[in-house]
Amino acid sequence: MKYIFEVHIRDGYQAEDYADAWVRASELIQQAPGARGTELHRKIDDPNTLIAIAHWDSKASRDAMEAQPNQEIKEIIRSAAPCCEIRLIGEFEEPEWVVMPTGASPN
What we know:
Residues 1-92 form the ABM domain. Helix content is 32%, strand content 35%. The chain is α+β, with helices and mostly antiparallel strands. The protein has a single domain (2-92), classed as Alpha-Beta Plaits, CATH 3.30.70.100.
């Protein structure tokens, strides 16, 4: 499954301010069973808007990680709060279908 959220960087801050916290928290979160990686993307026409994607084996795996709060992760997230607003887009299952041009391979 994918856990997707949008990050808006506040005036006076840069995406790199949030990205530093993102990397530190992600390195810890990725130690949880079922964690399969994270991505942070900058919007092409707005460098202060990011989209974050966390990949998990299942919603149950992610929920289990959330049910056992890690104080260090909470502190990292709290430290990044002044620089951004975060809006959950949602939790998504793996695609039921993937449409690819003939001969193309998924990344």
